[in-house]
Structures are given as C-alpha cells and as structure tokens.
Amino acid sequence: QVQFVESGGGLVQPGGSLRLSCAASVSISSIYTMGWYRQAPGKQRELVAGITIGGSTNYADSVKGRFTISRDNAKSTVFLQMNSLRPEDTAVYYCNRQWPGGPYPYWGQGTQVTVSS
User: Fold this and answer.
1) What is the pLDDT of residue 75?
2) How many Å apart are CA 22 and CA 80, to the nearest integer?
3) What contacts 69, CB < 8 A, 6 or more positions away?
C-alpha cells in the first residue's frame, strides 16, 4: 500500500512562510491528481490544494494567492509553498490522492503547522 511522509511544518509568525514536502512510497506518476489536506483541532479534514500530472492546480478559496502546490513525479514528491500565513492556517497538513477516487484510506502522520505570534 502507498505511504506518505510529510515534513516541513513548524511554528511561524503571522505573515511568515513554510514549504511542506510529501514523499510517497510508490511512484505518483500514475496518480492523476495529488492533493494537500489539513485538519485543524475540532474540525474535519479539508482539501487545501490539488495538482494534476499535467500541472493544473486547484485551491481552496481560503488559500488562493498565498499557497502554491507543485509536484516532482520523478522523485514521487509533492510540495506546498505557503506564504502570508495566518493563524487560521494552523493545522496538521497531509498529502494524499485527490482524484480519481478521493484520498486513499491510509494517511501519513502529517506535519504540524502552527501560526502564532
């Protein structure tokens, strides 16, 4: 089964930046759309951004213009560049398949992002 290992989170002040990475245990070349998800305390997990094999992207309205998703199929890695971070971006961030079929039922450990002064 595919496994995802997320990294790059941390504590950052409002307005700061972080770059998250996600390494997959299998080639992601056959996964049409990969996505980044996040789950804040007491809330459901939500899709933040997605990217197709061809590089087309989609973003949640709350992060448009601030986050950028990218992927390196040769290295089976997906990235999330996060700029102008806000306290409401605080969450555990995960990567997983977006399409087809939605996320796999197994999730990585995620990476904690905390935005606070």
Assistant:
1) 95
2) 9
3) 35, 36, 49, 50, 51, 57, 59, 78, 79, 80, 81
Q: What contacts 75, CB < 8 A, 6 or more positions away?
A: 23
- Dist. CA 55–CA 108, nearest whole Å: 23
Please state whether beta strands 4-7 and 18-24 pair in parallel, antiparallel, or not at all (unpaired): antiparallel
Cα torsion 50, 60, 62, 91: sign: negative
Q: Is 88 helix (H, G, I), strand (E, B) or coil?
A: helix
User: What average pLDDT values come out for the chain (117 residues) when binned by 10 residues?
Assistant: 95 98 92 96 97 96 98 96 98 96 93 98
Strands 18-24 and 91-99: unpaired
74 in helix, strand or coil?
A: helix
Tokens of 16: 């700061």
